[in-house]
What we know:
3 helices, 27% helix, alpha+beta
Amino acid sequence: MNKYLIIIVVLLFCVACKTPEARKPVSVKTGSFIDESVERNKKLNAKEQAQIQQIMSANTSNDYIASENGFWYYYNTKTNEDIAPTPNYGDIVNYSYTLKDLNGNLIYPLENFKNLNYTMDKQELFTGLREGLKLMKSGETVTFLFPSQKAYGYYGDENRIGTNIPLIAEVTVNSITKTQDN
Length: 182
């Protein structure tokens, strides 16, 4: 009886030690989702660019400047370039701004974003505004036209700004406080 028990144990051991075979994939992934997303974003970007170009064409009294960062702007109030510096990393910028959609509908009035302090590149701020503040000097007011990817993008602000909404922001830099970080 001992002999049979040993044979059974050996057989069980041999069966249990068999290496498992790899499972075959149920479906093969392709880049189709990524490709579709890229195409969708290209179309969205082209649509927003056309809307912004239409606004600029209709408003020829302003001298629009194309930024290197993918948005447009013009100066409402400009200071002497030789006197006032732009903010650097760590400087504290006191600013105010309003937000509108491309149709000119007010989303956030000045009262919502008045006399805010921002430490350059050390705090969270939507991409376009962060890049726009770097171009400004104390006392200047600039109007920015941000495509949605430079504003709040796909998620919006989860309040008044919805998905993929391009924005017009009128921003005033009240003061720039230089810090020791520079």
